[in-house]
Design a protein that fits this description.
The complex is a heterodimer. By secondary structure, chain A is an all-beta fold. Chain A is about 0% helix and about 50% strand. In chain A, strands 2, 4, 5, 6, 9, 10 and 11 form a 7-stranded mixed β-sheet that branches. In chain A, strands 1-3-8-7 form a 4-stranded antiparallel β-sheet, with no helix packed on it. The termini of chain A are far apart. Chain B is mostly beta strands. Chain B has no helices and 12 strands. Chain B is globular.
Chain lengths: ~110, ~110
C-alpha cells in the first residue's frame, strides 16, 4: 500500500539553527500539506501546496517557514532560526484531489534545545 | 470562528463496551467531516469520512459516525470495542472550498482487557 514517508523520524537542533524536514508524498497525489502537533495540543494546519505554489497557509506559517518541491518526489518544510516553541511533531500529508482524504506520514519529531 | 470540539479527552472502556465519541463543529457553509485514528507509534489513519449523502457513514474496523446537521455534530460510534482500539481519535473538518483540515484536540481511548 502506498504511503507518505517522512525523514528523519526525530530531529534535534539547537535554537537558531535551520532545519529541513523531508517528505515523499504518494506518487499520484497532487495536494501536499504540512501540519504540526505541539505536545499535548491539537494537530494544527500549517500550509497546503498545489501546482508548485502555496494554496493556503495558516497564521502559524510566517516568514520563518517555507516549503518546496525541489523535484518530482520530495516535499520539504524549512524552518529558519528555530525557536524552542517550534518543538513539535510535524506531519506531512498528501491527497489526490481537493476535498478528499489526506494521507499522513508518520511524522518528524522536532526538538529544539 | 471555525472550530472543532471533542468533548471527551480521555476515555477508558472495558472490552466489548460500546463507544461513542463526541465531535461538534462551528463552520459556515458546506463541510467535509473526518475521523482519524492514531495508534501508538503510528501515523494518522482515516477511519471514515462524510462529504454528502447518507448521514450515517460506515468506516473501517467496525466504526461508524452520524452527521447531524442540525446539531453540527459528527459523533463516532462502535458497538463493541476491542483492546486493539486503544488509540488517539481525532475529528477533523474542512470547508468545502478549503484545503486545510481543522482538527479537534483528540480523544485518548484506552480499552482494558
Amino acid at each position: 500500500e502506498p504511503e507518505v514517508t517522512q525523514t528523519p523520524s526525530h530531529q534535534v537542533t539547537q535554537m537558531g539553527q535551520e532545519v529541513i524536514l523531508r517528505c515523499v508524498p504518494i506518487s499520484n497525489h497532487l495536494y501536499f500539506y504540512w501540519y504540526r502537533q505541539i505536545l499535548g495540543q491539537k494537530v494544527e494546519f500549517l500550509v497546503s501546496f498545489y501546482n508548485n505554489e502555496i494554496s493556503e497557509k495558516s497564521e502559524i506559517f510566517d516568514d520563518q517557514f517555507s516549503v518546496e518541491r525541489p523535484d518530482g518526489s520530495n516535499f520539504t518544510l524549512k524552518i529558519r532560526s528555530t525557536k524552542l516553541e517550534d518543538s513539535a511533531m510535524y506531519f506531512c500529508a498528501s491527497g489526490v484531489a481537493l476535498n478528499t482524504e489526506a494521507f499522513f506520514g508518520q511524522g518528524t519529531r522536532l526538538t529544539v534545545v | 470562528a471555525q472550530s472543532v470540539s471533542q468533548h471527551n479527552h480521555h476515555v477508558i472502556l472495558s472490552e466489548a463496551a460500546s463507544l461513542e465519541l463526541g465531535c461538534n463543529y462551528s463552520y459556515g457553509g458546506t463541510v467535509n467531516l473526518f475521523w482519524y485514528v492514531q495508534y501508538p507509534g503510528q501515523h494518522l489513519q482515516l477511519l471514515l469520512k462524510y462529504f454528502s449523502g447518507d448521514p450515517l457513514v460506515k468506516g473501517i474496523k467496525g466504526f461508524e459516525a452520524e452527521f447531524i446537521k442540525s446539531k453540527f455534530s459528527f459523533n463516532l460510534r462502535k458497538p463493541s470495542v476491542q483492546w486493539s482500539d486503544t488509540a488517539e481519535y481525532f475529528c477533523a473538518v474542512n470547508g468545502n472550498s478549503g484545503y486545510a483540515l481543522n482538527f479537534g484536540k483528540g480523544t485518548s481511548l484506552l480499552v482494558t482487557p
